[in-house]
């Protein structure tokens, strides 16, 4: 099955959000720190499934979200998000990215969302004709307020969807996962429960070769969960447990390639570029495994030389070394 990364703009995030989970990064810093920002990509994935047809995993952001003010006006989101949090060039909108692969939004036969956060469901309403799969726990928590303030699912972003398909993970165990869900009945697309980042966060295993983690892992370095950990507003124990289960899956499937939504590192950039034609070459796969061997030991402990650090570049922005 071919898998196409879709670049749907980018988002500006605090360094501590991605890497400060073990350094005491706080909710106050999350709100106030304007001096340690990173621009990271937003990726959705298009699967050319031989029977189910074109299927999306996540949808990225919409032009309305990127404009910010009118879309979020009058809601807590207007104040919880920075005005310039998103950037979406015209050639990176969901319709434009689909058109590059020969599709229109109405051609999509199903959508799988890893979780309800805004940078994963922005243009979801374009696919009101399609069933939308998501973890049952995520669907159940859709009206919950994070920290009592911010809705897990912003109502306008999901208003048009009527065919929700909550996933129960009652299928066979695989790797460290006690259950799975075979979404299309042929074993090619398995949903796996990876809660923590959100209540029902779900990862997607494609052809037992690619694991699409959504935000269960921000980058490949987050595999070393005892050394690199994202900031969590809740569910940290679940988050850690989910990454450990991914570690087990990786040991069971040595050729597994982990693809996240926001990996801004050399690893993510190289693999996304390698998948332009929908398939990863043997050369790119060999490069990925060589990179991983230089980055982790057999127990997924991180090479100390590759611990992330913020390198400022001016105006509060920087990159990660």
Automatic annotation (TrEMBL):
One of its GO terms (molecular function) is metal ion binding. InterPro entries: MBL_superfamily_lactonases, Metallo-B-lactamas, RibonucZ/Hydroxyglut_hydro. Its cofactor is Zn(2+). It comes from the Bacteria. The keyword Ribonucleoprotein does not apply. Residues 41-262 form the Metallo-beta-lactamase domain. Gene3D superfamilies: Ribonuclease Z/Hydroxyacylglutathione hydrolase-like (3.60.15.10). Keywords: Hydrolase, Metal-binding, Zinc. Belongs to the metallo-beta-lactamase superfamily. This is Glyoxylase, beta-lactamase superfamily II. It comes from Amycolatopsis sacchari.
């Amino acid at each position: 099955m071919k898998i196409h990364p879709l670049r749907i703009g980018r988002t500006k995030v605090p360094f501590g959000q991605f890497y400060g989970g073990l350094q005491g990064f706080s909710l106050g810093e999350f709100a106030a720190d304007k001096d340690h920002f990173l621009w990271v990509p937003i990726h959705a994935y298009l699967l050319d499934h031989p029977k189910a047809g074109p299927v999306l995993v996540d949808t990225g952001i919409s032009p309305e979200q990127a404009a910010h003010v009118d879309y979020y006006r009058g809601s807590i989101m207007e104040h919880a998000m920075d005005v310039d949090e998103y950037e979406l060039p015209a050639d990176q909108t969901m319709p434009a990215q689909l058109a590059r692969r020969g599709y229109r939004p109405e051609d999509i036969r199903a959508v799988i969302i890893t979780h309800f956060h805004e940078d994963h469901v922005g243009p979801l309403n374009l696919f009101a004709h399609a069933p939308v799969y998501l973890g049952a726990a995520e669907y159940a928590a859709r009206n919950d307020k994070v920290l009592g303030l911010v809705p897990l699912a912003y109502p306008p972003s999901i208003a048009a969807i009527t065919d929700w398909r909550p996933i129960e993970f009652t299928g066979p165990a695989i790797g460290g996962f006690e259950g799975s869900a075979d979404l299309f009945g042929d074993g090619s697309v398995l949903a796996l429960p990876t809660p923590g980042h959100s209540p029902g966060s779900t990862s997607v295993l494609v052809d037992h070769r690619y694991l699409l983690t959504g935000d269960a892992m921000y980058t490949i370095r987050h595999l070393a969960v005892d050394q690199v950990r994202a900031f969590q507003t809740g569910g940290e124990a679940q988050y850690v447990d989910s990454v450990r289960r991914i570690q087990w899956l990786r040991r069971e499937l040595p050729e597994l390639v982990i693809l996240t939504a926001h990996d801004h590192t050399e690893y993510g950039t190289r693999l996304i570029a390698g998948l332009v034609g929908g398939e990863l070459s043997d050369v790119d796969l060999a490069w990925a495994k060589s990179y991983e061997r230089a980055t982790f030991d057999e127990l997924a402990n991180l090479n100390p030389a590759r611990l992330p650090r913020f390198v400022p570049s001016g105006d509060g922005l920087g990159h990660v070394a």
